[in-house]
Amino acid sequence: MKDFYLQSKDEVLKEFKASPNGLSSGEAKERLAKYGENALVEGKKKTVFQVFLDQFKDLMVIILIIAALISAFTGDAESTIVIIAVLILNAVLGTVQHVKAEKSLESLKSLSSPSAKVLRDGQKVEIDSKKLVPGDILVLEAGDLVTADGRILDNFSLQVNESSLTGESTNIDKADIDFDQERPLGDRLNMVYSSSLVTYGRANILVTGTGMGTEIGKIAKLMNDTKEKKTPLQQSLDKFSSKLATAILLICSVVFGLQIWRGQPLMDALLFAVALAVAAIPEALSSIVTIVQAMGTQKMAKQHAIIKNLAAVESLGSVSVIASDKTGTLTQNKMTVQDIYIGGEVLQPNELSLDNQLHRYLLYDVVLNNDSRLQADGKGIGDPTEYALLEMYRQVPGIDMGDDQIALSEDDLRDFLDRQEEVPFDSDRKLMSTKHLIHTVPTIFTKGAVDVLLDRCVSYRIGDEIKPMTTEAKQQILDQNQAFSENGLRVLAFAYKESDEELNLDAENGLIFIGLISEMDPPRPESIAAVAQAKKAGIKTVMITGDHKVTAVAIAKKIGIFAEGDLAVTGLELDAMSDKELDDKIEKISVYARVSPENKIRIVDAWQRKGKIVSMTGDGVNDAPALKKADIGVAMGITGTEVSKDASSMILADDNFATIIKAVANGRTVYENIKNAVMYLLSGNLSAIITVLFASIAGLPVPFMAVQLLFINLVTDSLPALAIGMEPGANDILNRPPRDPKEGILNKQMVTRVAVQGALIAVSVIAAFLIGLKTSSAVACTMAFSTLTFARLFHGFNCRSEHSIFKIGFKNNWYSLAAAFVAGSLLLSLILFVPSLHSLFTVTPLVGGQVGMIALLAFLPTVVIQAVKVIREKK
């Protein structure tokens, strides 16, 4: 890798056969084919065969392999073959599930991949960062993630955070300078590196390295950080499974000893103990949780909520506070200019005239002091507030040339009056300035927040006359600003001065006030309904905005966030509060206006001290710390900076607040489905344990063969549990309060249900077993096996919801019927009624009355459970 920081700009441009105007589309295509995509090569992943072999490392599988070996030693070759065949089938299913879950996560990663702004064919365009090639001219602005290594060509106060490479958390001031000796990475001020964050200013960069050819690519070669962590829920369930397995093995040891003491042959006693272990361990638990979560994230992605990690799905169900940015999330993010205050009067955009010098200077400020642009299709690129100003400019009549009017496009104006110097906008200063040559006179144009800009104005202009800024004149401007703000309008102030001084922060003083432009971003119609729905769901919505308090409250009232008795505070008022004061007032504060990044972190922290799970939305660089601090950081997919997306755990592809509420509902549904699937698995397995223990204590024959329990676990664990995981969610899911995150999945209520339902199924199975014993132990075993299988298939309907089947219906989840119940019933019928399968599964032919008894006893637990639910619903 060459040291491009030691070369001059011209040398680097020559090296890459590039131009400051960028590559052509054809050149870019050729280079992409030559250099490959701008992506890191991930560490070597496990092959499908390795994943397949991993399926045999499970404790459950080891027990089954032991069972197969025991069967082989006892001369039961058929059972051995069946167990091995089913083990292989189970491993294949596990491998398919793993690959599917991995693909789901990969597709979600691709949805949230960063974009890059480059010059192609002389035009600034936005492309997928993977399509960047060496020689491209990369345009960086505050908030961007640097997606390739590059040499700085044009620098405008660029500051970059390179902590991901250097470990230094402070921002680095970049410079367009040449070096003549080697320097460490952190001191190469004329270079930027992939994975860095632009925190201030802007620059044009010549891309010198992409993909594995970057500095971060070197690190990627040394280490593989692609290993996925298990989610907290998975870890909790793994611990539970481990403890359960230990307990079961202890019980199995006791049962084995008891059988030997009663004089059972060693192999029979061992098979009995193995049967109990097979019956007890819910081997599908971990995979079911992963699959349900992965399917949940896919569903959310279709609804424009991109979940970056599975753990966020669990947290979503517990969200009790949403601190939402106003612009674009609660509102339409379609800023349009409303009224213009200039020359002491309020005008509409089409009433401005380029023939009027005062109007013309305002329009110069609007177009030239502006980093956004409008594409041919009218789509804006850049900040919505800025391209709304360009849309306003297009409404202004052209210059009067007698019979004709000449309309200058914003691009023409920018070509004629090109930018000489600039001080970019930043959220702390709340100003932006550019310098141009207007009629041979160096002129600085400034725009920004009204209160900040007015303090820097020493005069104002009426017509062609420039007057000193008096207290009365300033108050008149502030009164007009107040009138705009009370109507929920965002207001920008514009000023200028003629000066050839160097444009820096000190130059933004001694300005001449031109006028005010008010813009409105109307509330999204769906956000009003979503805020009301959030309130029903026990979620408090808080608005955080950079607007004035009056403007913010006006919008918040329209949306339904601000009600009678609520409080609105500014960032300065928040700074003046102690932590105790904030803790006392926070539940009444619904609007935060004019806030700083530190304010946002403090708001999140205060809610978290109250034990709340907080979701924070944001789109800017200054939002990133609060997004990381929040339990669920939500970045905007359309207007969001790469910094905010990188810091978040969820990205809204449509920048819509209503999507957050949908995601919360989905998060609650996913957790509910997992809980129901776990309840199904544990209650079903408990019924088998109770039956085996009953037979052991009563001195009865083994109620199940190992191969039968293997069939039960394969068919009646996986299929119905997956079907339960696909439930669309209860209609009243958002009418319930948020879930307590401290409460484990196995709470007292769930343990009680598992015990009661498991016992009910066990009673039916034991009854079938005892009835069969009147004929023979073979019939008893067959009836117990059939009743348990059929009862668990029925039990899948009970575990779909806490509501009765009559309330939730059958049609909303056809998987429960088709994939689980029908498929399971058909497989059981084949085993019972196809003679060639009898010896494989150690079953014996049954008569009609016995089959009818199995169906009745299997259905009885569901009748009892559904009856209890119906009675509870009628109360």
In short:
The protein has 875 residues and is an alpha+beta fold.
Molecular structure report:
There is one protein chain. By secondary structure, the protein is α+β, with helices and mostly antiparallel strands. Helices cover 50% and strands 18% of the residues. It is built from 32 helices and 28 strands. Helix 9 (266-280) packs antiparallel against helix 25 and helix 25 (657-698) packs parallel to helix 27 (748-773).
Note the overall shape. elongated
Radius of gyration: 35 Å
Question: How many strands, which pairing sense, and closed or not: the largest β-sheet?
Answer: 9 strands, mixed
Give the N-terminus to C-terminus distance in angstroms.
Answer: 75 Å
Structural class: alpha+beta
Q: Approximately how much helix is present in the residues?
A: 40-55%
How many individual helices? 32
Mean pLDDT: 84
The amount of beta strand, in percent, is 15-25%
Annotation, overall tally of beta strands: 28
Question: Unreliable runs, pLDDT <50, ≥5 residues?
Answer: 223-229
